[in-house]
Write a structure and sequence with these properties.
single chain, about 110 residues, alpha+beta, four-stranded antiparallel β-sheet, about 35% helix, about 20% strand
Length: about 110
């Protein structure tokens, strides 16, 4: 599947999460909020490449994941539309290097430039 079709399929999946009922996970999850879906869609469009997967999370947000040959990136779009980022399996030195690049404005964040 090419990137455009993958992106369309992921975005369609995101909007499908809006149909989830209360308690969709049988552990008290709240329905997915539109703000989370819109934030995730905007981030996907800013990145310009389809994530590996998108999943709903119990607080009404959504998580989108990219996987590369070395690193994975998880973005959580919260119900209020804010985003958080997690780089699993990154050692402290690599994490510190990424933070320095961001702080030095040498690593563009999607949608900022």
């Amino acid at each position: 599947m090419n990137t455009s079709k993958r992106t369309d399929a992921i975005v369609e999946r995101l909007y499908g999460f809006l149909q989830l009922p209360p308690n969709w996970d049988s552990y008290g999850a709240v329905p997915t909020h539109r703000g989370a879906v819109e934030a995730a869609r905007a981030h996907i469009e800013a990145v310009g490449d389809a994530p590996y997967e998108a999943v709903p999370i119990p607080d009404g947000g959504v998580q989108i994941n990219w996987r590369g040959p070395v690193l994975s990136l998880e973005i959580e779009a919260r119900p209020d539309g804010s985003l958080s980022c997690y780089l699993p399996h990154v050692d402290v030195a690599a994490g510190n290097a990424l933070v320095r690049l961001i702080l030095e404005d040498r690593l563009a964040i999607a949608g900022e430039k």
